[in-house]
Amino acid sequence: MTTMATPTQSAPDASAPVYNPKSESAGAKRAKSLAFHAVALLLTAVVLYPGLWMIASSFKPNSEIGGANTSLWSSNFSFDNFVTAMDGIGGVSTLQFFTNSLVLALGAVVGTILSASVSAYAFARIKFPGRGIFFGMMIATLLLPFHVVIIPQYIIFQQLGLVDTYIPLLIGKFLAADAFFVFLMVQFMRNLPAELDEAARIDGAGHVRIFTSIMLPLMKPALISTSIFSFIWSWNDFLGPLLYLNTPEKYPLPLALRLFVDQTQSSDYGAMIAMSVLALLPVLIFFLIFQRYIVEGVSTQGLKG
Amino acid sequence: MTQSPTLSRRSTTSAPAQLRKSKQRGADARAGYTFLLPWLLGFIALTVGPMISSLYLSFTNYNLFEPPKWIGLDNYTTLFQDERFLQSVGVTVGYVVFGTPLKLAAALAVAMLLNSKRRGQGFYRSAFYAPSLIGASVSIAIVWKAMFGDSGPVDQGLSFFGINLGGWVGNPSMTMPMFILLTVWQFGAPMVIFLAGLKQIPNELYEAASMDGAGPVRKFFNITWPMLSPVIFFNLLMETIHAFQIFASAYIISNGEGGPAGSTLFYTLYLYLRGFSDFRMGYASAMAWLLVIVVGIITLIFFRTSKSWVHYSGDAK
């Protein structure tokens, strides 16, 4: 969020009257620009307020959160809440919850990248009977409320004795169950010139060669968007772990947070909010580093946040 | 063999070339299905199979421990006499009907504000987008609960203006506005998509309209709205479908109970409670299938009515 550069805007553009054919006086233009920034900054303050409040509260002693002191800043600034939050809950340290979340998120990224890219290659670059029908079904699953499959899936995994393992949470990632990523990659690959594979075919390359040595390197932007989003979605996922995980040692952060809320109730607000901050930290860091990728990905692919 | 008649008819291509082509086609079919295998396996084992099985379960009594007992349409008929179910429908519909249009209106308004060549546009766009990335998380649900709680910052802020509502979290008539604010707060994702759509509208249209003396309102309804209609359609469809599926925030804010007084008993939360707390899995399956049918009908209605208001470029009007 610190990057303010807008590469689309170049210096000569700024002076050219783009919108209004009637040339305005410099003063009127400045007033308009000032009004724009006033409105936009006010809106920024409103939108970012919950985040700022969360961060500010995480450094406040319990007595001041929701107390008479409404200012964001407290004179009793301390890391106590974070110390308590790092202790964890139910005999499990917060570091363990972090590790669990990380294992699940990285597993999701690897699985999604592998399965979605291979399946997308079939949809985008190989002609085979039934392709159109399957593609339509894949799109339909994008709109399908997934609640219709969670009960039978649970029953299957329960009968296989896989409840309370990470397998039910990860197997779908390795089977391209997140249709959105398949769709994203299909769209991306369709925009790559067809001459590429034709030339490779004439040289005798098969699909495996074309996929690994031509497509994959060119798909880097799509692979990066997919990695970022599948990481964040897995990191934030609540329902999946809630259904399948029973032992706190295996909990990822969202479930640990729920446990924390359940056990402390509102008695230790500060630590609860500090833990919420910790849980969001990787997502926020991701966002700061990859914001351009993320926002561009959303605007071109219609990815949901 | 069966191909030979077609071979002879097409005199332009030589027989060996045709043969090579059909061989290629066979190889392509094999390769196609091999590459598609991960998705196909997942589709069958994790989507189609479970869908059929939940359809079957929806006609049974099943508690995970005893074999399912066929009861016909009983689950469905019971649903419509189940007050908690009807309440969950009301809560969810209210949320979808008020939350989604408000969120999209905010998204469109801000996108139009940002759609100009001004410094800082990239910064604002990123800042406004950020909530969409974290809004559905447990952390934000906890923050929301604290912010709208008794003597939280929202309560304090309103008291300053002489409005004393107390905590919104414990007040059944204020929980819905709280959830609607939570979804409107995440206007960034549709906004970014709107912004991309607005950039596609040629400036000449606005210039020509200005010369004809059109004001901003007319420009909006005669240029922006029709030109943007495919994007509006996409956002409306996706946001509506997603709104039906809100879960984590509802679970956390209400401690997994849907209270106070059932005012946060969202559809998926009730489904979860029935299926995984009461282990009434047949009943929950019936709920899930009803949701699929309703979402399907809504999607269909959207596509049907879209012909009258969604204009794709290149359309002969």
UniProtKB/TrEMBL annotation, chain A:
It comes from the Bacteria. Keywords: Cell membrane, Membrane, Transmembrane, Transmembrane helix, Transport. Residues 98-290 form the ABC transmembrane type-1 domain. InterPro entries: MetI-like, MetI-like_sf. One of its GO terms (biological process) is transmembrane transport. It is a multi-pass membrane protein. Pfam families: BPD_transp_1. Residues 1-12 have a biased composition (Polar residues). Belongs to the binding-protein-dependent transport system permease family. PANTHER family: ABC TRANSPORTER PERMEASE PROTEIN MG189-RELATED-RELATED, ABC TRANSPORTER PERMEASE PROTEIN YESQ-RELATED. This is Binding-protein-dependent transporters inner membrane component. It comes from Arthrobacter nitrophenolicus.
From TrEMBL, chain B:
InterPro entries: ABC_transporter_permease (IPR051393), MetI-like (IPR000515), MetI-like_sf (IPR035906). Keywords: Cell membrane, Membrane, Transmembrane, Transmembrane helix, Transport. It is a multi-pass membrane protein. The keyword Metal-binding does not apply. It holds the Pfam family BPD_transp_1. Residues 1-16 have a biased composition (Polar residues). One of its GO terms (cellular component) is plasma membrane. Residues 1-23 are annotated as: Disordered. Residues 85-302 form the ABC transmembrane type-1 domain. The chain crosses the membrane at residues 31-59, 93-114, 126-144, 178-198, 281-303. One of its GO terms (biological process) is transmembrane transport. The keyword Ribonucleoprotein does not apply. SUPFAM superfamilies: MalF N-terminal region-like, MetI-like. It is found in: Cell membrane. It comes from the Bacteria. PANTHER family: ABC TRANSPORTER PERMEASE PROTEIN, ABC TRANSPORTER PERMEASE PROTEIN YESP-RELATED. Belongs to the binding-protein-dependent transport system permease family. This is Binding-protein-dependent transporters inner membrane component. It comes from Arthrobacter nitrophenolicus.
